[in-house]
User: Fold Magnesium transport protein CorA from Adhaeribacter terrigena.
Amino acid sequence: MVKPRILQQNKISTKVGQKPGFLFRPENAFDTRLFLISFDEFELVEKEYESYDELFAYMQQRPHQRHWLDVRGYGNLEILENIARDFNIHPLQLEDVISDYQRPKVEEESGSLFMISRMVTFTPKKLIDDDQLSIFTGPNYVLTFQSDYEDCLNPLRLRIRGGKGIIRKRPVVYMAYAIMDVVLDHYFPVLAEMSDYLDELEDCLFKQPKKEILSRILSVKREIVKLRRIIWPERDKISELLRSSPEVIPDDLKIYFRDTYDHSVQIIDLVENYKEMSGSLVELYLSNINNRMNEIMKVLTIISSIFIPLSFIVGIYGMNFSRENPDGSINYLNMPELYQPYGYITLLFLMGALILGQIYFFYRKGWFK
Amino acid sequence: MVKPRILQQNKISTKVGQKPGFLFRPENAFDTRLFLISFDEFELVEKEYESYDELFAYMQQRPHQRHWLDVRGYGNLEILENIARDFNIHPLQLEDVISDYQRPKVEEESGSLFMISRMVTFTPKKLIDDDQLSIFTGPNYVLTFQSDYEDCLNPLRLRIRGGKGIIRKRPVVYMAYAIMDVVLDHYFPVLAEMSDYLDELEDCLFKQPKKEILSRILSVKREIVKLRRIIWPERDKISELLRSSPEVIPDDLKIYFRDTYDHSVQIIDLVENYKEMSGSLVELYLSNINNRMNEIMKVLTIISSIFIPLSFIVGIYGMNFSRENPDGSINYLNMPELYQPYGYITLLFLMGALILGQIYFFYRKGWFK
Amino acid sequence: MVKPRILQQNKISTKVGQKPGFLFRPENAFDTRLFLISFDEFELVEKEYESYDELFAYMQQRPHQRHWLDVRGYGNLEILENIARDFNIHPLQLEDVISDYQRPKVEEESGSLFMISRMVTFTPKKLIDDDQLSIFTGPNYVLTFQSDYEDCLNPLRLRIRGGKGIIRKRPVVYMAYAIMDVVLDHYFPVLAEMSDYLDELEDCLFKQPKKEILSRILSVKREIVKLRRIIWPERDKISELLRSSPEVIPDDLKIYFRDTYDHSVQIIDLVENYKEMSGSLVELYLSNINNRMNEIMKVLTIISSIFIPLSFIVGIYGMNFSRENPDGSINYLNMPELYQPYGYITLLFLMGALILGQIYFFYRKGWFK
Amino acid sequence: MVKPRILQQNKISTKVGQKPGFLFRPENAFDTRLFLISFDEFELVEKEYESYDELFAYMQQRPHQRHWLDVRGYGNLEILENIARDFNIHPLQLEDVISDYQRPKVEEESGSLFMISRMVTFTPKKLIDDDQLSIFTGPNYVLTFQSDYEDCLNPLRLRIRGGKGIIRKRPVVYMAYAIMDVVLDHYFPVLAEMSDYLDELEDCLFKQPKKEILSRILSVKREIVKLRRIIWPERDKISELLRSSPEVIPDDLKIYFRDTYDHSVQIIDLVENYKEMSGSLVELYLSNINNRMNEIMKVLTIISSIFIPLSFIVGIYGMNFSRENPDGSINYLNMPELYQPYGYITLLFLMGALILGQIYFFYRKGWFK
Amino acid sequence: MVKPRILQQNKISTKVGQKPGFLFRPENAFDTRLFLISFDEFELVEKEYESYDELFAYMQQRPHQRHWLDVRGYGNLEILENIARDFNIHPLQLEDVISDYQRPKVEEESGSLFMISRMVTFTPKKLIDDDQLSIFTGPNYVLTFQSDYEDCLNPLRLRIRGGKGIIRKRPVVYMAYAIMDVVLDHYFPVLAEMSDYLDELEDCLFKQPKKEILSRILSVKREIVKLRRIIWPERDKISELLRSSPEVIPDDLKIYFRDTYDHSVQIIDLVENYKEMSGSLVELYLSNINNRMNEIMKVLTIISSIFIPLSFIVGIYGMNFSRENPDGSINYLNMPELYQPYGYITLLFLMGALILGQIYFFYRKGWFK
Assistant:
């Protein structure tokens, strides 16, 4: 497994002083691909276009249909700028679309919306990975922008293709809602995976607390904090949408946004829970270190307390005090024990008793668990 | 006892991208049972119905009575959908009802209320268990939904059956209040049990601080945090009800809601107290580990400090410096002590004095408590 | 002294599902006693009544006087219910009065006030003890309720009896203010005693940090948190009174309430200070444990570092390497030191030098303080 | 140096139940002294008066001049009460003036202001010392009250005496501003001294972390918290003044108050910084204790690891296994090493190699720094 | 590398009691230099002026051009006061300009703006260095003040010189925006460098946790807290600008300010992240100390546990119990092991087995990693 790091290399854009709205082609940008789903209640056409002009002409010809233009990859700035021109996107908004990182937000102008959502995925290696999804709505279209080809919107595409239901009858803002809702729903499985990961870490803590675990816990904590930074503005975004005028979001659609709002609050609750829990894991880890120290010290103390005094005792009887007085007579005061017939055996018994006594003492102190 | 875990397996719904309001039959859902209490000031009829149609017909025939339809178990989606249709429940609301987890909230529409409360119970094994209770009010009925057959509303049922008092004369919103109030009142015994549990943990801490206690404290802390997440929106819910128009809640009933509001604030106070206390228990545990370490070290140090120097002393007199010079004469400088008549006894006395001196030294340092 | 506990047995009422306003006679309730002080500018009559009817008749006859009816002990529910009926007290309010614990609050209805204050006392055993004082005002009377016979209002009674001053001329709401103010003033000596107690704990920490001190600090912290839970709503209560209409509190009295408001804010400052300080004491305690550990380790290390090498040295000269070769000749290589005339004395000197050297080394390291 | 204490003996007034506005002569109160500065654009008279009546008569005679009456010491209650009567000071305000501790606040009534500021000084012994300065403004006078004779207003007095500038032309509220501003400006040198003190503590931490340092850090932290309690309401006070009507503070003076507001926010920033830093110092201290423990343990472990095994080895060759079989023949199996010609020297070499090996091992582990 | 310090010598201005708006020439102030860029859509003139009068005359003659007067260095107070007089700058504002430290803020008066921004740079030695940039706008000019000659505005100067684009057509407030935006954009590379620095510290922590690292982490934390104190008011400043009237900032420019607002919020997110991370590093450091202690203790315990009992055993066989009874007969009970033919070898084997057993025991406990 990769060495866990607490600090994550943040991709911070460091261009300074460019004129606002100036576009950089991001490094390693994917080629731009254009997907269009056009539909009304009766018909649905889905196609990937090579040429933007062809696509735009097609949309122009079908003003009564609804269109979802899905732009993936920012490799071709020219196409992006054409789209911005044709769909009335401000250069600063386009800059936001292409930038590495924007917080979830919504901007409303003359009835059309510009929203930024963040799509999250979980992998045990990189933990949380979050990509930006930019959504624009117009009278009869929804535009989405994302930097790579994978996303979490397939369930929605299936619903559009399959169902002739509500989504194909409602105004396009409903589809914007549906996209936002699918993105938000995707947080739940990610959080479930995160929960499993935390669970696994707790298991490790109980089994064998390795040094790296703390790094791992702290890096999960960092990711939870990151999630928190994403999900709070997400909630604010939805709450702002809920307060918008009926021209932007018809009143009968508001209940759907309120539902999404509830979801965002639930996600916040879960994220806050995980934050608390990762803090608890740190506490547990630290107390585990101390507990291990206690155990190590107990082993040392038991061994030392038993054998150091015994060594002293046998040291006594290794002394060479002279049995003889200078005049050759026997000195009965110098170490008479050595000359007792049962001296050695008595000593062994005494030392055995001492050992048992100490063991009993430590047992009573509860040092053997 | 079950091994305590800090992390709790959260049941996170992971269905993504379904159309809003789409109903899943929850796994392990209980069969749907229907209980109806119909009453006015003079009469009360209470019955469990097998057939929803029969029940609905009965309600239709008695428009001047008040009805409490109590739906338990979400196993039969068809019945639930029929109820939603007949009682004008929005699909998204029905989805909320069936979902695993919703925060307490209230939604008001054209004078009728949709409220979600959470019923909590305490068991030493699982600590806090919380179930969702959904309440709808209409002109002459209250609908409640819950996922299993057990609840904490029996005291209220007894009151309705027994008393001919206020509850059978007041508008149905009073009954909604009564249900909410009983649910909230039930928090107090749960908190009392939690307090006992914390108390028991503190006892354990003083007696024999085992390793598992920290996990147990941290899992109680997690539950307290969970309670907090429930009770704060509960308070907000009641506060929103207090601000609602007199058509929804007549002014003379507001005082009852204010009383419930006071209860919710008291619960918050208690929960915050318990949070603080569980934090104190963690601090106490950690300092206990350190105190034990101190004690272990004291034993080691006392034993070592006494016997290691003594071992050195007896080691001296175990040396084999020669008493004889090469010329056979006696070398009076090499270890003359060994040849003193009282050498051994003097040494024993000296070592005894040393031991006593050290014991006195450690006693003065307060190492024997 | 009683064993300090962090957790305090909270008296949590666990009755569930009773109809709102239902009265329980609290366990161990004191007999209800009735004290009446009736006065105008010229006259003052003070009496304890056995019979409530007699008392009420007396009040009825003197509509132009002001009356302070002081009800102590909740043993006789019937009297309390009669008072509620005669003085227009809502059953829910009466329930609040009798309940164990209500936060400070104020309710205003048609110009009369219902206020709850908490009277605190400090004892070294139980630390903070808080009793509830409920105050009702009417056109010409003030009603107070308390659960036992002791209170902190005697200074006020003395002022009423003695002074013919402002308190006997002003509207009754001034008396309600005066009661509330006396209760709040009583927090200051309690805080002073708490400060002394904390001071004593700090002294203990410096002298001899016993194990129980942490429990004691943590239980003081708990009490401080409890005080905080009381005093913040107290402030809110006064702030609400300040915003009330001139009919309830005449404008020229507002300055008195603002003064009380300032006091409540001062109390909050002090309580927050004490909270901070008790946190500092915990930090100090924990660092003291570690410092003691350091000291213990130093003793062990000094003793071991000095005597373990010495034991090795004397061990060398206790070895029995043979002085004789197999052929009987002397082996000058095996332990020649033993046969030097000054061998023993030289060794003793060397070991003495080693000891001094080590002592100097540890002295330089600053291990002897 | 005085023994640092975390807890500071708080002077808490413990008089309870006195009638509001009742004045106590504070213990150890200074004699009341009266200083008057009267000036207009052309003239300035400054004098200390013995008699208040004389002073008041002088002020009455000069209604077109501006007066700054500076009252120092609260020893003579009669004078204070006369001033209160003549200058229309409410008894509760006078009580505030004399009281030990009031938070910074402002009260406005019919165009005149009553403000409380706190003057701080720093001494290494007592750290922060704060005195109360009460300011009243009237149509043509400013009244200030302080409990002792020293204050930080001398720079302002010099400005009034010296300059004929703006301060002598503007309305008196400008002078109130000037006083408040000087008091606030005085926080900066105090904070600079505090910064030096913290710096010195950090130096101590690096040199020789004594036990008392933690107490000292924690007592600085307490003082910082105290400052915070003073400076936040100071900011609120100024912000309230900024919102006051143009009759109280003319619009062209508001810019001066906004400047003072900026200063108060800067002070808050600094105080919050110091709070953070004192927390860092605590962390540093605690980690230093642990580092020292590590060092102590390293010494013990190195010495023990080297010499305990060696002692065992020399112990082996101190055993007395018999070289002779019972039949008198030589037992070549019992400790033959002792009889090798180079046995002793070989052993010494081996032990030397063992010592070097261990030293290398610990060196590689980085235990010698 | 310089010794890291947690406390940073704060430059706190300690002048007290000066009249508001009084100017001090800062110590070590740079000579004042004047740079003027004058331009319209067609022409651009850029020049450094020696004489302010000449410069002002030039500006007066070209009322239809736009001017950016860039004042660097506060050494010449006279010039600054002339500028203040000519461009209508209040003395208090000029005082703010020259002062060491002002929080970011904006003041608006009659359509012109006074803004303070802080320019930050990162150096590994001093970490964050922040300089103040003061901006004034007028009908056709922008004034900037900074204390030294280096700044981060060069990219903007290049844009003005090069592009004939939007910046030379828009009203001057757009240029004020552009300056503010460049300053803010400069935070991103500074944060990237800070991230690298934190990263390096984490690396050090894993390799060899030296004592100084904690100081270094804590001083980074201090800098992050400093950044936070700067960036939050920066955000508030922009948010205030966003709410200003269309006369001050035309509506079509608001979108640019909103973009800058988004940037400030992103910076806040990053700064909060770094704060969290530096806290995690402290936790990691502390747990590392404890882990090292554990390792040290393990070495000691393993060595001691193996060799102390062995020393005892060999001590036994070094005792001198007499083989002979007083009558000269052999005492077969005293240490018979010494006289066994295979005694020594058996003992060596037994001790070897003991060593292996203990090694296995510690291996099973996981003490060898």
Chain E touches chain A through 72 residues (CB under 8 Å). The radius of gyration of chain E is 37 Å. The first helix of chain E runs from residue 52 to 61.
